């Protein structure tokens, strides 16, 4: 039986409103974000989700708390699902930070990590998921780096293709993993 992973981004944050690249800073949801988080809960509560895995950054945790409050679905925090660590550039203008994002595919941001390192970190979460959740449907709430890791690790999309692509938000992405022993690490 395949494992199904549903990915949703954390909800809209105050930093999104201000055009800030939060990175490893906690951030918090805006009023619009709290409404969107409640909509996420309505969309996913009865979707066969066995567990929710969420980045431990505040904006992601707040999303999960609002979406799954009052349910029996376990919500598990995991630091490996964090956004790329922009290091000294956490909290700067998103437009400025991402203008030359491809420069940091393999070179770490000053005081932070590279995109490839971030994707590898999230990939370690995927490795551990096999210990308990094989054959089940799980939800992952995270960030750009989280989704890129899923696209790269599961679907084999080269990071070189992802680094310059538009993120294009939508209501969830779905991934299927047929055989946990057949997954290849593509980083």
Automatic annotation (TrEMBL):
Enzyme Commission numbers on file: 5.4.2.11
UniProtKB keywords: Glycolysis, Hydrolase, Isomerase
Molecular function via GO: hydrolase activity
Entry-linked Pfam families: His_Phos_1 (PF00300)
InterPro entries linked to this entry: His_Pase_superF_clade-1, His_PPase_superfam, Phosphogly_mut1
Signal peptide region: none
Family per similarity comment: Belongs to the phosphoglycerate mutase family. BPG-dependent PGAM subfamily.
Name of this chain's protein: phosphoglycerate mutase (2,3-diphosphoglycerate-dependent)
Record organism: Micromonospora halotolerans
């Amino acid at each position: 039986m395949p494992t199904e992973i549903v990915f949703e981004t954390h909800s809209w944050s105050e930093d999104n409103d201000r055009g800030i690249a939060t990175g490893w800073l906690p951030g918090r949801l805006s009023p619009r974000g709290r409404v969107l988080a409640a909509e996420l809960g309505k969309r996913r509560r009865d979707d066969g989700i066995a567990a929710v895995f969420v980045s431990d950054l505040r904006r992601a945790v707040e999303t999960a708390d609002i979406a799954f409050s009052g349910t029996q679905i376990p919500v598990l925090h995991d630091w490996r699902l964090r956004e790329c660590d922009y290091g000294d550039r956490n909290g700067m203008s998103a437009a400025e930070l991402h203008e030359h994002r491809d420069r940091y595919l393999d070179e770490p941001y000053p005081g932070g990590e590279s995109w490839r390192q971030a994707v590898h970190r999230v990939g370690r979460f995927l490795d551990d998921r096999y210990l308990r959740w094989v054959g089940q449907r799980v939800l992952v709430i995270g960030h750009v780096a989280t989704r890129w890791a899923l696209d790269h690790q599961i679907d084999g999309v080269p990071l070189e293709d992802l680094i310059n692509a538009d993120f294009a938000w939508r209501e969830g992405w779905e991934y299927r993993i047929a055989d946990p022993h057949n997954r290849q690490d593509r980083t």
